[in-house]
UniProtKB/TrEMBL annotation:
Major localization class: membrane
Family label: Belongs to the band 7/mec-2 family.
SUPFAM superfamilies: Band 7/SPFH domain
Subcellular location: Membrane
SMART domains referenced in this protein's UniProt entry, alphabetically: PHB
InterPro entries per record: Band-7_stomatin-like, Band_7, Band_7/SPFH_dom_sf
Signal peptide: none
Topology with respect to the bilayer: Single-pass membrane protein
Protein name: Slipin family protein
Ranges for domain Band: 148-307
Length: 384
């Protein structure tokens, strides 16, 4: 039984006509009178405004009916060593992975696919880095980030590029992009500036078994990034452990008094040992210094008592020395007065002056001569 059916196709549509599940032709915009064969005729309508031809088994259909579909659909296919840049009306909208198959409708937009061979060169062109690197190449499906490894190397830093686990090159400061398809890309940034490491709260026993808490600070810079990264990996942790071990060795071989008297020798010893060790890995130690030596509470009290006793002893020694000096001076003065009557008389007048300065009123008997001769009179020792 034959049944005719009218079908309207819009300007933004194309229809595929199938009979007995076999493709017959493409129906263009307009009204079409289609003969139905007992339900064996099927119409498949597609919206071409989406540009992309999305249909299961689209590749098989295009290959099987290339002549009939060529005026309507164009396809792009990439090999396993190629990536594609999809442009629509001059705008980059997507990145096609290796092995991709992309059919598009003709006459809707200007579609272009730039194919890039990444079998040997995996570096993204500098002009594309700004478009794709930071996710600026956002597509209608997603972003270009899954296909590209983007990295920025700041000033005073160096980047080490590894491809499939092998170090390939150094990266100077700047922006870089690398195709990740079919390979493993990694970039490790190395800071070339002077850096600081703190070794804090170390509980250590001295040679005389006194428990101390010591804080150490050091500064370093990386001179050979390849040695530091390849041989040490996490070189900052290695530096911390080396400083920690050298500090414990240095403190454990000295007594408390030695440490407190000469901290500079402790710093120099640690710096010398660590510098020789780290130089083998391209790292330079700039400074090492013990910031704090913290004593336990009871030890602080004992040391305070020791210091107090030492200072008291020093004060007594100074006092005795001054008293001895004063006695010696008095002895010399007495000997000079014994041999000089004039000097003896001057001393008497000096004593008289001091006596009169301390009293308000004096009753004099015997006149001025009695005051001068009898009020104050010094006699040599042994005189009657």
């Amino acid at each position: 039984m034959l049944i005719w059916k009218c079908i309207d196709i819009a300007d933004s549509e194309r229809a595929f006509l199938f009979r007995r599940n076999r493709f017959v032709r493409v129906l263009e915009p307009g009204r079409h009178r289609v003969m139905q064969l007992a339900g064996q005729t099927r119409i498949e309508v597609h919206d071409i405004s989406k540009v992309l031809f999305e249909r299961p088994n689209s590749k098989f259909l295009l290959n099987s009916h290339a002549e009939k579909l060529a005026p309507y659909i164009e396809s792009y296919e990439l090999t396993d060593t190629q990536v594609g840049l999809l442009y629509r009306d001059g705008h980059l909208v997507d990145v096609l992975n290796p092995g991709s198959f992309l059919p598009v409708w003709k006459g809707v937009e200007q579609v272009r696919v730039d194919i890039i061979d990444i079998s040997e060169d995996y570096t993204v062109d500098e002009k594309l880095v700004s478009l794709l690197g930071r996710g600026a190449g956002v597509t209608r499906k997603g972003s270009a980030l899954p296909a590209i490894h983007y990295v920025e190397v700041p000033d005073e830093h160096l980047g080490l590029l590894t491809v499939n686990g092998k170090l390939e090159q150094r990266l100077a400061p700047g922006s870089y992009g690398f195709w990740k398809c079919n390979r493993s890309i990694g970039v490790q940034l190395v800071d070339l500036r002077l850096q600081t490491v703190e070794v804090s709260g170390q509980e250590i026993l001295t040679k005389d078994r006194v428990s101390l808490r010591i804080n150490l600070s050091a500064s370093y810079r990386v001179l050979d990034p390849e040695k530091a990264v390849l041989k040490l990996g996490k070189y900052a942790e290695f530096i911390y452990r080396e400083l920690q071990l050298r500090l414990r060795e240095a403190v454990g071989t000295q007594s408390l008094d030695e440490l407190l008297e000469d901290k500079d020798s402790l710093n120099l010893g640690i710096a010398r040992d660590v510098r020789d060790k780290l130089a083998q890995y391209g790292i330079e130690i700039a400074t090492v210094g013990v910031k704090d030596i913290i004593l336990p509470g009871d030890m602080k009290q004992i040391l305070n008592q020791v210091v107090e006793a030492q200072k008291e002893s020093e004060a007594n020694l100074i006092k005795r020395r001054e008293e001895t000096q004063a006695m010696r001076s008095l002895h010399n003065t007495a000997r000079m007065m014994e041999n000089s009557p004039v000097l003896m008389r001057l001393k008497e007048l000096e004593a008289l002056e001091r006596v009169t300065a301390r009293i308000d009123k004096i009753s004099v008997y015997g006149g001025l001569e009695g005051v001068l001769n009898n009020l104050v009179k010094l006699q040599p020792s042994g005189a009657s």
